[in-house]
Amino acid sequence: MRTPAGVLFTVYGVVILAVVTGALGFCSDGEIRCVDGKCVSNSKIVDGKKDCKDGKFDETGPLCSIWELHCANGTCLPREKFQNGKNDCGDNSDEVPSPCEPSLFSCLSGDCILKGKVQDGKADCVDASDEAKHIGDICDVNRTCDGNCRCDVFVPNTDCINETCQCLLGYRPNKIGNACVPVKLGDKCTKNETCFAIMQNTSCKGSICSCDVPYIPRKGNDGCRLRRMGDPCQMDSECRAGITKSQCNLGTCACNQGYFFDERELVCKLVKLGDPCKTSEDCNEAVRDSLCSTSGTCLCKPGFFAYRSRDYCAKRKLGDECDEFDDCSEAVEGSECSNSTCQCKSGHFSDSNNTHCFLRKIGVSCQYDRDCSDAVQNSVCLNNTCICDNGYFESWNLSYCLMRKILDNCTENIDCISVIDFSHCSIFGQCLCQEGFISVDGNTTCRQRSLDDPCEEDIQCFTHVNNSMCINSTCDCQSGYSKTNMTCTRRRIGAKDCAAHLDCSDAIMNSICSNNSCECKVGMMAVENGTKCIMRKLGDSCSTSLHCSSAVPSSACYNLTCKCDLGHFSNQNGTECIQRNLNDVCTRKLDCDSVIPHSHCFQGVCKCISGFKIENLRHCSPRKLQENCSLDTDCLDSMNNSYCKNQTCDCKEGFKAGPKNASCVLKFLGDPCVSNNECLMSVSHSRCFHSQCGCIDGYRQISNGTMCFQRIIHDNCTTDIDCSAAVAYSRCVNGKCTCTSGYRSAENGTLCIKRQIFDLCNTDQDCASAVTNSRCNNKTCHCNVGFIAHMNNTACRRRIFGDSCKIRTDCSTFLPNSNCTNATCSCWDGYDSFDNGTRCLRRPRRLLDSCVYDIQCKNADPNSICSKSYAGYQSCTCAEPYYRRRDTETCYVPQKVGDYCRYSGWCERLIGGHVVCDSNNICTCMDDFFANETENGCVEIPTKIGGFCLKDRHCWKMNHSVCAGNRSCQCDYRHVASMDNSTCLQRPVIGIPETPIQDIGQLCDINSTDPRNCPDPLTRCREIVGRVNTRCQCVPGFSSRYNESTCLEVQTYYINFIITEEVGCDLTMTTLENPRCYLYTPFKYVKPYGNPVTKAFRTIRERITVLGVDKLFLESRLSDRFVSSECLNITDVTNGLDVSLLLHITAYYYQIIEPRYLQHFIVELLTNSSRELGQSQLKIQDPKAIKVKDFDECKERRGTYSDCSPLAWCINTKASYMCSCRKEYMDVSHNTTVRPGRICIDPPETTTQNEACSSGNCETRWEWIVLALIVFGMLLFIFIGYEIFERKKKLEKR
Prior knowledge:
Layout: E1 2-3, E2 6-11, E3 14-19, E4 31-33, E5 39-41, E6 68-70, E7 76-78, E8 104-106, E9 112-114, H1 151-154, E10 158-161, E11 164-167, E12 171-173, E13 180-182, H2 192-196, E14 202-205, E15 208-211, E16 216-217, E17 224-225, H3 236-240, E18 246-249, E19 252-255, E20 259-262, E21 267-270, H4 280-284, E22 290-292, E23 298-300, E24 304-306, E25 313-315, H5 326-329, E26 335-338, E27 341-344, E28 348-350, E29 357-359, H6 369-373, E30 379-382, E31 385-388, E32 392-394, E33 401-403, H7 413-417, E34 423-425, E35 431-433, E36 437-440, E37 445-448, H8 459-462, E38 468-471, E39 474-477, E40 481-484, E41 487-490, H9 501-505, E42 511-514, E43 517-520, E44 524-527, E45 532-535, H10 545-549, E46 555-558, E47 561-564, E48 568-570, E49 577-579, H11 590-593, E50 599-602, E51 605-608, E52 612-616, E53 619-622, H12 632-636, E54 642-645, E55 648-651, E56 655-657, E57 664-666, H13 676-680, E58 686-689, E59 692-695, E60 699-701, E61 708-710, H14 720-724, E62 730-733, E63 736-739, E64 743-746, E65 751-754, H15 764-768, ...
Antiparallel strand pairs: 1-2, 2-3, 4-5, 6-7, 8-9, 10-11, 12-13, 14-15, 16-17, 18-19, 20-21, 22-23, 24-25, 26-27, 28-29, 30-31, 32-33, 34-35, 36-37, 38-39, 40-41, 42-43, 44-45, 46-47, 48-49, 50-51, 52-53, 54-55, 56-57, 58-59, 60-61, 62-63, 64-65, 66-67, 68-69, 70-71, 72-73, 74-75, 76-77, 78-79, ...
């Protein structure tokens, strides 16, 4: 069959389209599509040349917009409608790369058929694409066909309704209308059947699928379910519909008060004792007098016990059994649990009803002392009657025994002395203390009398405490004694308990009381352990100077010892300090100058210091001028600036005698002098002028004549030297110091600095003398016209481009062709700035315009420069290696073959040799040469196999050769290169094995519920893509060997590899029954391989699996475990076919093959077979690139490779998977042991009353359980003991 785009032929029943003309396929942006699918650039539209066949669409029209493409019939469609799986053009030309003639229909397989055969119920295209149905397409339900005319073959979940393909009830079209998806809650609807067709308990409300009351949406909105515990709600009825005895509590479904939720039976049950709970109200609502324990279990309140039915709490009585203390005390006050029985506590007795315990009192009957004492402290049982013990008497209410005190009534001594020592019962019937004792502690104790106790006479005190007496009716120590540990001791120096001087002096003479402490009088010290005070002497210890000076005048305390003051010395007995005189013996300076000012210790004798003389033995006076001396220091130490001259004190140079000749003072200006040094020593900046001191030049005298100040501007002067000597650039004008011309006063008149621009001025000379090209304008220095201030306003320079300005002449004076624009000097329009802004030159606008610099020419052309022309003037010309192109007036150079040129030299310069400029002014390769890949050069036509090429026509010198994908000339698949690679020779022919294609499994009815439909429980009725009949296939996790029906449990692995080569065949030279096939050639992909409904897909699939992978494994050492292979995806990739398949191996869960080991095994098989895939006559790209991994049945293809119930969890395992119903659902699978989780349903509604309890005997026999645990514990204890005994024996033997 011939097509406009190539030749169509078949190999093994596979449709192959061989392209023999130009580039075909869909077009990119910037291109249009011709009738035959060829793409043409937009730049070639209506250019006078027919780029499309017949010139349609590019010259004659119709023309489409830039966002549309042409169908073969001329219709314009948006680009996004091309290759979207739908026939939008009407002739299917929008779905194929090479459309048929406009009068024909284009099959996806490449066939061309008459349009009248489309949708006629018969598949005329190999891939049945002429019968492809879409939602809304016309159909005929009664028309018989080969299965390819049905709606559901192409769009699952559709049927022919009213002669139109429509979605089944419960399904709706997706957004783009190419598939039917299940209706979900929230989708639009028109009738109830649309919703409940696949979702029970739903209806159409307000044109939207919603759940019926009281149902709520499932997760994912794919169905409705009754409310469960914890679901949101608004009314109690919503919860009770799903769970009886429930209510809506705070917007959430919960069990009624007094009920709990049984998670195993999924019902609300009446709470009983021992059931779980959250609050005590949950328990007390169902069982009175119960509460919720901390462990979350209902228990009876303390004082109550559970009845056998666990629905009643009875109050305990005396005599009832008990376990804990509060079991009794909470029920009967005053009772306790003793010996597992409720009994009254000791000290209590019961009433006749055993419901109360009463506390005993004095006078009540008893048997033991404890019967009384546990109720009434300090009571005993005497003669079977409770009485108070000795020393105690009963209270008014007979509930207490009170202890006797002094003065309480008594009958005999034992009533008192049993509780109060040293007491007795007097003849008056009262408890009293014995003689010599007094009552204390609130009359509860008798003790011996001591200090501070009350008394009436001295004998009561000193009888028991020596040196004490009765003072103010209280026992106290005599004067001179102090209280120590309740005894009286004689006071000593240091005692800290005195209040008056007598407290100390009565015990120690010459002592006083100071700050409550006994001390010796001032000047005296304690001796004989503080019992005596004597007068201090020099050398005695002390703490303050007063201790010494009070005993010895002119003494003080030094380092805690009494010593004479400075300038004094001690007599022989240490009782007197004598003052020192001049010429007395001394050891240090302080011995002298502390009593005689201006003296010191010199050679062990007190002498006057230097500068002083002896006035008398106790006085040193300072020396004066004209008095005798021997050294300079004799004068200088008493009078500064003096010295000894001729053994007489005199002033130094620059000084004169002060008042009373007692000092030397500085000379003043105007004082007589002999030399400059005499004046300069006393007044800075002075000199001796005409025998008098005066200021030097540049300085002036202040009024008191003590200082010379430097002159400043505006000070008085007489000559220029008076000013210039003090301030540079100044002179004397009219008796005042003034700055010279060009300078101004600064720093408060101490400086004359050079004027700058913008300084104040009076005349032009003030400015011009300081700054050239400046003048005085409005009392301020400014630059002349055409100049601008710079160098911090110290100079004026000519204005240049970019300087600030005010008027035009500011710029144009020295910068021709310029203006003042926006207060800035700028060049005229059409002129540019050069030479650092000092020139404005005209800008060239095109080549050959005059210029001065290269940069000017960049405006004319970026590749131009300024150079001298033949005429001798400079103009803009093209730089090397560019040429001036006259038609565009630009600088141009050819870059590749096909570019513009004027002479052949233009092309050869950059492109190289073998290029000429043809008559059309185009750079063209010479004969026997063609443009290289980048078109920047020409290469020679190849003459041998392997030479470089870009297209098949480049290999014309070698017969039967083509340009291969590696851009080299190679022989086609029917030929092989000769020994010298100069030509191609005929290849040998090989045979091709037949590809088996057959359906596996028993025919079945997919709508039937008869178990005999697929009798094997491990199979299910399944629809196979591209087939009319449905067949029984193994369920997921199981598979059968080829041509066998037994389903085996398998472990599944995912494998991916790329097929790059296949045996080349040519049907144009022979018949289909006897194909001519040759060696392996690059694999060629055709579009039908990607369509599962085509025969081409089924053929390549069987070649890969049955002939390829199956044969590869059946001839290996894993043949006994190999079951089958299954193709997942076939995808077109560059130079090959990307294949993904599943490998099924018999399940041995204790011998699971790791994916990496299986990958290594497959690589080994393919390496040994030279990359050949079994007997498929296909080769893979690289065995080491094969990928093997565990297949996740739960996630891949949205779980279609698992058969878990939608209400179950799917758990991926090593090489397999497992199912488990979710917690809230019940597992009713056929075999829950081997294949659980396949059928999960909502648990049936159950009542709170268990039918098995109809006899009333529902309670758990806890006593048997406890007995069993005890027996088990005993056996365990015996076993552990025996084991310890045996081990101990073994250790002893060792």
